[in-house]
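Would you be willing to look carefully at the protein I have copied below?

:::
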Amino acid sequence: METPTAGRPAGNGRRRAVLAAALVTVLLSGCSLDVRDPAAPEAAESPTVPATPTITPGHDAEAVAAQDLPFSAGGILARGVPVGISDGLREAPGWQVVKENVAGESQYLKADGCLVSARVRGNQEAFARADDRESTVALFQYLDPTVLPGYLKTDSLRWGEDLEAPERRVEVLLLEQAAPGGRATAVMARLFATAGSSVYVSVSCPDAPSLAGARADVATRLQVLPPSN
């Protein structure tokens, strides 16, 4: 995370501390921030595993899963078919499931005290911008208006369900901070404008070293799943 420059008003630092405290409160309370499209009606939760295949003319799900998905490539996804997210942390050493697909969210607790929350949301079209990067910035700023684009870094998660296939990556934006109370937090998210859905993964740990370990597990075990055909 970039630190404010000397020329940046001190108020920005206070706002970032408030944001960090809010993120930690959300994580430790067992909840996560709601990322619905405020203009869209309530809809059924997006599945966290691939749904029954949907025929989408011109869409080749296997070909999409066989390549990396940078922000610029979001348009190759099937329109209106949500992405998914795996439950791969279930089998990771030291992790256990504490919430499984409750209102579209799953949570995992590590023996060292790290907590991961993973969620997929549909009806995200209102956040769509020129590409998925700008759309994801809009999503973060909807969650908290004090988040500036410069606070966000590019990161990646694993892309595709097949762990035997060559590893592919999907770009996400990362917000990472030390928070009051000594905990370290990270939020990774991506808005898939064409698919009309988003993934949101938050990690909260007792300290920075344990956060690094938890993020390494998330990066290899928690796969983002492409829309099916």
The helical segments are 10-28, 61-65, 132-143, 208-221.
